[in-house]
User: What shape does this take?
Amino acid sequence: FGDQRLPLNIETDVYRVVQQAISNAIQHACASTIQVSVAWSDIECRFTVEDNGRGIGDIDPRDIVKGGHFGLANMKDRIERNGGFLEIGNATTSGTKLTGTISVANRTDIPDQNGNYEVTIKNT
Assistant: This one.
């Protein structure tokens, strides 16, 4: 976001969550297209990773560890420890969408510029 940054621990956690979501889409969902978007405002940092793979199925976010979804549990923990939340969009037949939001409203260095960034990854 230009020369404006989130605290290093938050940046690292967001990076790792997005990295894991991309890896999952390639490894487990056999996705051919993955759309990553990040939006930053003076209220929140929000990111979405959406793929066109075979779908994640119906997962209860309260029992992701019980279901053996340790990668998802790790992603959820990373976002929640920064005061945010991770939404896991259930799709049984095609595509998966993960959306993470972390509030930045109480930061002392609130960004003075908003930004929206998107990238599409093609897995051929």
In short: The helical segments are 8-27, 70-80.
